[in-house]
Amino acid sequence: MKSRFAFLVLVSVFFAGPLRADMSSVIVKVKPSVVIVGTFKNTNSPRFGLRGAGFIVSNGSLGGSNLVITNAHVLQQPAEEDLEASLVVQIRVGQNEWQMRPVSVLEVDKVHDLALLRFEGPAAPGLSVRDSASVQEGQAIAFMGFPIGGALGFSPVTHRGMVSSITAAALPTPTAHQLNEKTIRSLRERGSFDIFQLDGTAYPGNSGGPLFDPDTGEVLGVVNMVFIKGTKESALTNPSGISYAIPSGFVLQLLRRGKVN
Predict the structure, then answer these.
(1) Are 248 and 226 contacting, i.e. CB atoms less than 8 angstroms apart?
(2) What is the pLDDT of residues 54-106, one digit of tens each?
(3) Per the confidence metrics, is the pTM higher than 0.85?
(4) Which helix (DSSP H) or strand (DSSP E) does residue 194 occupy?
(5) Which domain holds residue 202?
(6) Of the candidates 164, 256, 170, which has an alpha carbon nearest to the alpha carbon of residue 201?
(7) Which has the least CB within 10 A, 58, 95, 129, 244?
(8) Number of structural domains, the chain?
(9) Helix (H) or strand (E) holding 183
(10) Contact 156, 223 (CB under 8 A)
(11) Alpha carbon distance 12, 119 (integer Å)
């Protein structure tokens, strides 16, 4: 009788769903796939300029991948930046060692502020992207990135929280001189879409990083917007605590459009 009971317990655990791990194990799993996105020019000082975070996505059944997801706005060049600087990513290759790789832009989704990149050289471990259709308000999440850029060092930082709201994204209101036929047609075609509002505090440098399931490490979204009270400097002492993420369903669409399995 006892052996039968034990067998039933094992069967129920096996069919209960995906195996879950403790948070420490999940962080170890996710870290090698989180990259630094920036620019490089040998004559600049500093030579590397941080733009944001990104993450490597798994490519089907392959053991590694050369594909990176980040925000489209991370690729935009600030007015003061050197136009000749090359777009690069830095990939974690050791405990505290980073390797710089040139990248090419494969696809940009301006509507959902997403970009798909491919880096040169050997493949690296990628994260599995889950369809975000099942995500619910109140669901626990975690996200990883490089808060406050180089000020705190290029070490991935993990934050926990929950999806506090699933709400429609608000499109910018055009000014009077922008409200022409082309703009109106674009707004009608784009419409609104749902995004995740988070109660976890993110900072500049988290943008483009993965929002993931803290039990499995699967990607649920991309950290997108961080609201800051006042200047960037005040983010350290007076963060708003309001952050947003683009649902991973749009990442899957981007990968399909880029003909990536």
Answers:
(1) no
(2) 999 997 655 579 999 999 989 876 655 666 789 999 999 877 789 999 999 99
(3) no
(4) strand 194-198
(5) 19-257
(6) 164
(7) 95
(8) 1
(9) helix 181-190
(10) no
(11) 43
Residue 7: inside a domain, yes or no? no
| Domain membership flag for residue 240 | yes
Q: What is the CATH number of the domain that holds 62?
A: 2.40.10.120
Tokens standing for 78?
């600030």
Which tokens is 137 given?
């308000």
Mean pLDDT of the chain: 79
Single-letter amino acid code for the residue at 260:
V
Residues 6+ apart with CB under 8 A from 140: 160, 161, 162, 213, 214, 215
Tokens standing for residue 183: 């703009």
Q: How far apart are CA 238 and CA 228, in angstroms?
A: 8
Residue 2 lies in a domain: no
Q: Please state, in angstroms and rounded to a whole number, the distance separating the CA atoms of residues 242 and 163.
A: 11
35-44 burial: b if 16+ Cβ within 10 Å, else e = bbbbbbbeee
Instruction: Kindly state the helix (H) or strand (E) to which residue 228 belongs, with its residue range.
Output: strand 219-228
**Residue 108, in any domain of the structure:** yes
